[in-house]
Amino acid sequence: MSTAAASTAYDAHFRVWRGDTGGGGLKDFTVEVNEGEVVLDIIHRLQATQAPDLAVRWNCKAGKCGSCSAEINGRPRLLCMTRMSVFTRDETITVTPLRAFPVVRDLVTDVGYNYAKAREVPAFVPPPGVEPGAYRMAQEDVDRPQEFRKCIECFLCQDTCHVVRDHEENKTSFAGPRFLMRVAELDMHPLDAAADAGLDRKTTAQEEHGLGYCNITKCCTEVCPENIRITDNALIPLKERAVDRKYDPLVWLGNKIRRRER
Amino acid sequence: MAQVERQQWDVVVVGAGGAGLRAAIEAREQGARTAVICKSLFGKAHTVMAEGGIAAAMANVNSGDNWQVHFRDTMRGGKFLNQWRMAELHAREAPDRVWELETWGALFDRTKDGRISQRNFGGHEYPRLAHVGDRTGLELIRTLQQKIVALQQEDKKEFGDYEARLKVFQECTVTRVLKEGGRVSGAFCYERESGRFFVIEAPGVVLATGGIGKSFKVTSNSWEYTGDGHALALLAGAPLLNMEFVQFHPTGMVWPPSVKGILVTESVRGDGGVLRNSDGKRFMFDYIPDVFKEKYAESEEEGDGWYEDPDHHRRPPELLPRDEVARAINAEVKAGRGSPHGGVFLDVSTRMPAEVIKRRLPSMYHQFKELADVDITAEPMEVGPTCHYVMGGVAVDSDTAAARGVPGLFAAGEVAGGMHGSNRLGGNSLSDLLVFGRRAGLHAARYAADLAVRPVVDEPQVATAAAEALRPFSAEGPEAGAAPENPYTLHQELQQAMNDLVGIIRREAEMAQALEKLAELRTRARRAGVEGHRQFNPGWHLALDLRNMLLVSECVARAALERTESRGGHTREDHPGMNRAWRRVNLLCRLADPTGGLAATDPVGGQIDLERVTTDPVRPDLLALFDKEELVKYLAEEELYE
Amino acid sequence: MATGTEPHLKKGTDPGGVRHGTRAAIGAAHLRTDRWWVQPAATAAGLLAFVVYSTWRAFADSDYYEAPYVSPFYSPCLAENCAPMRDGPNWEIFGSWWGLSPALLILVFPLGFRLTCYYYRKAYYRGFWASPPACAVAEPHATYTGETRFPLVLQNLHRYFFYAAVPVAGILTYDTVLTFRDEHYAWGHAGLGTLVFLVNIVLIWAYTFSCHSCRHIVGGKLKHFSKHPVRYRMWRWVGWLNGRHMLLAWASLVSVALADFYVYLIASGAFDDPRLF
Questions:
Q1: Which parts of the sequence belong to the 2Fe-2S ferredoxin-type domain (chain A) (predicted)?
Q2: C-alpha atoms less than 13 angstroms from C-alpha of C230 in its C-beta half-sphere
Q3: pLDDT of B554-591, one tens digit each?
Q4: H helices present in B451-537, as ranges
């Protein structure tokens, strides 16, 4: 097999978007591909041999840091987790930057939107009176938020979500799947004391983070490299929780009575 | 040159991994206005790659655990070369640092009674690693990141500005720590996105830049690990400690080439994976060193019994410390009994049902399936040693994390040396980050607050730093008009040389050869040129990082050549045994030219001076934690009777 | 500049979305090379076929009862103009004034349940509205407000349709029990139709219980599963079904149409129900 590596090398045809805020376009490259390589390897080969200033973000190269997000043949993907073997040898492979965010240069985009949204989600509220070391939580209670904490913040879900991808103007009012999932995570955290501090995450999910914009068309789930079931386990449960607060008279009445009893 | 923008902060933290973020949180909570500078996006630091867990003697799973046992394990793992005071502080404070994470929202796996679950790991006597499946590092980085955001939200409420007292400069690089007199005055930085230079004026600088793995060809480290902090400290006049100790993790992927070096977690062996050579033999039974003979199984039956009943069986030799396993694999491959791609076989497929593998090792299953198209439930993995961690680093004061000899400079995490001695135990790095990250932030903030007069950044220093950074754009070949050197080529040659000549098994002649090669590369690196402009230009970034890699590589090579013994992460073929006399010897690397200038194209003298220093004796109450018979193996005669 | 540049999109003619001025200058609405349109097209075709069929059957007002089978479209039958069904759910709540097909009275509920269902929403938003047509394929609409405004804000009422769907499924279960009679209402018999009804009712229940609102109500709304072990088990069970919600949505849609069509065939005399025992 090791000797076969050389003989299985072939030249692939790539189209890579190059440019910056001033404009740009798809540029053609012919580049060598060896057995077992991923798209990021090819981008690196372009850097080392043909385009030393080709801008790309990457870090761990093992699908754990979420840096090398881009679009390959029009689909949002991690460059390091897309094996060349999924393409045919005569196929032209198109690599572009994420198309929902402002471009910086080549494959690098300005993902500042995501960091701005992250700041708008109120942080975990520690339970008052519980000392560090005295936190007790059952595994079945942390299972749900733990799934969401697998998120590597590659922002592919934010990129593919049509709410902001196709409508720039919605960026002010919509947090995007990643950060709605963060709201869900905190609302499901067994010890989050936001409610006692007067913060109702169920209501703010809709009123401040734009949950209502989501039309659950599941593209976020489709592109998630961590296979987090964003829509089914975070967004829809969050929508149901918002309904509890705002549209369910039975629950509303029940809460009213119980609160009075207390 | 146009005026370079200046900003004033109290503390600047270089690096946004676990140590950097923990330092920044502490400094800000102490009231210091704190800036964090990191090469990548916020939250992408290499800490996310840590899989196993955070070692802390919380005694949640085994009540016999306490900080003394943890201290003992750490010293044994480091073969007694650790700065014992650091190991002590680390073992004492780690539980508090873990519990604190929970108050910031971290969600660790739980025990039945709702506490933080702890798992077994190589070298730890009791189950000690707090973990979240096999993504503990991600949980750590995300928790710290979210705590930073929480602090920024507080500032937003109070001052109307998220970044009033704590700001993260993401995708920025520091190329020089600036000084006035002997003291730190700030940092010279460039923004990767625009290529714009800026200066941060701050009396306290915390280095938290991680390791040096990118100087080696096969490494589990990402591109960021170019030894920036090590080099910044050297250039600022601070010494590096024991740089010869580089940990090679025994199991990195070896195939396909694109993923060569990526880590295969130790849990694979902890859960029953075995190492075999091309003859199908479990060769680790042939490599149990005498000091470990009583603790490891002699037969496959006995080793296999351990997984189910650890009280009545000795553990299988696949679970020997990392350095032992790495050397054994290396020896098998050299003897011609390796796998097709130059590793050995790590097999779980014949040891557990497919369902169990997928449940216990989800991310490994995923990693091999997605990256190598190998189904680990059906066939063995091919693995080999990969450069993983550097134990050596900036020589610091154990209590304050202050770099020796440079007031205002602090270091924490992998960039700091001493804590792990000659070999780091798995799980001790994440706890190290938290314990010493906090201490560095705390003392940097205090230092800044106590200063009556702030050091000033003078214009000539800034101009020099800017000229140095711009050099690659005007580089020329050896003769005028000739093509400049390609930084990518230089980097590849450096990695190859370090891997081949200063790698896992070291020989005197090869290391001498390495120093010559480094001198040649240094000369050529001064001619490294780049195309294009300053905006997000990876070729330029690499050309600048080359300076750092060449500096730390020389430190590693010189120190390794000097230490004529084998200990932990330093193995000399020509000096195979551990020598008790070397226990008290620390090797310090300093810049040969104390002005911090980069001259030295001289292959013999080089850029680095080496100094031998003797360490302080271990405090008696700490020594009393060990049996006399054990101490005899490590300590020199005169130490024993002191 | 190292790279050649094309002219920047002029302001004022900025088409927005992926072709917004700040984004990477790429003219194409998408660069997908796979057959991304197959799925929305198939979904739209499938839903359309059901709409056409069910509209015809709902308004037909005939051939929906042949002892012992009643079409699920017409059960329970709530008007006086229903075909008499012995022991069947024949409740004349609406009396004689209702002149249209009695199916319309009851179909509102299952229709509403499916129309507001989280899966069907995805299906028709993609298939009919092209919002979006497929992932990373630009949608053709200039503005988008999602489910924030009337009428789509009413999608939040899904759980009430779930509440209504449960008794309807209960009645269909009763209908299925009644199929263990022969055409003379004697108990202890079954025909091929009994099997059709059985399969249908199992799928109807599975679809109903796999509902996201159901998952929320039985346990999803809780903060601490550990304090509610029974509801936790129910939540996990519903969660297992919920993972197959799309499959169950289609399977039950087809089965309910088939059950109706089966009744139509035997009621119109096109086919004789083979008796098993």
A1: 12-99
A2: 0
A3: 999 999 999 999 999 999 999 998 999 999 999 999 99
A4: 459-470, 487-501, 508-525
Q: Which of A240, A245, A248 to mutate to test the interface with C (most CBs of C within 10 A)?
A: A240
| Amino acid A132: pLDDT | 96
- Give the closest-approach CA distance of B562 to chain A in angstroms: 33
Closest CA relative to residue C38, chosen from C134, C137, C140:
C134
Greatest pairwise CA separation for chain A in angstroms: 79
> How much of chain A is helix, strand and coil, in % rounded to 5?
40, 15, 40
Provide the pLDDT for residue A218: 97
In which residue ranges of chain B is CATH 3.90.700.10 found?
A: 250-388
CA distance B68 to chain C (A): 35
CB B258 within 8 A of CB A36: yes
B322, B438, B583, B590: the catalytic one is B322
Please give the interface size between A and B, counted as residue pairs whose CB atoms are below 8 Å apart. 181
Parts of chain B belonging to CATH 1.20.58.100: 476-614
- Interface mutation target, options A91, A155, A162, chain C, most CBs of C under 10 Å: A162
State chain C's mean pLDDT as an integer: 91
pLDDT of residue B623: 94
CB pairs under 8 A between B and C: 5
Query: Which pair of tokens denotes residue A230?
Result: 């964003």
Q: Is C230 touching B (CB cutoff 8 A)?
A: no
Spatial distance between the Cα atoms of B344 and B334, rounded to a whole number of angstroms: 11
What is the tens place of the pLDDT at every residue in C197-220? 999 999 999 999 999 999 999 999
Closest partner CB to A81 (pick from B115, B370, B538) = B370
Please, which pLDDT band fits residue B100 given cuts at 50, 70 and 90?
Answer: very high
ipTM for this model: 0.94
Closest alpha carbon within chain B to C226: B114
* CATH class (in words) of the domain with range B476-614: mainly alpha
Ramachandran class of A216: left when φ > 0, alpha when ψ lies in -120 to 50, beta otherwise: left
Contact assessment for residue B447 and residue B203, using Cβ atoms and an 8 Å cutoff: yes
Indicate the pLDDT class of residue C190, thresholds 50, 70 and 90: very high
The pLDDT value recorded for residue A233 is: 98
Could you tell me which chain A residue has the CA closest to the CA of C4? A24
CATH code linked to domain B250-388: 3.90.700.10
What pLDDT sits at residue C1?
A: 26
Residue B390 clears pLDDT 50, i.e. is over it: yes
Spatial contact of B90 and B464, defined as CB atoms under 8 Å apart: no
Q: Using CB atoms, which chains have 3+ pairs under 8 A with B?
A: A, C
Q: Is C135's CB within 8 Å of A223's CB?
A: yes
Q: What is the CATH superfamily name and number for domain A112-261? A: Alpha-helical ferredoxin (1.10.1060.10)
CATH of domain A4-109: 3.10.20.30
The mean-pLDDT minimum among B1-15, B268-282, C79-93, C173-187 falls in C79-93
Contact B259 A62 (CB under 8 A): yes
Of B555, B610, B591, B599, residue with least CA distance to B237:
B591
Residue to mutate among A99, A106, A207, A209, with most C CBs inside 10 A, is A99
- Fold classified for B5-246+390-457: FAD/NAD(P)-binding domain (3.50.50)
C-alpha torsion angle, residues B547, B551, B553, B555 (rounded to 10): 180
Residue C25 near residue A24, CB atoms below 8 Å? yes
Would residue B322 show up in a list of annotated catalytic residues for this protein?
yes
pLDDT in tens, A148-157: 999 999 999 9
Average pLDDT over residues C167-193: 94
Residue A190: Cβ-neighbour burial (10 angstroms; 0-12, 13-18, 19+): buried
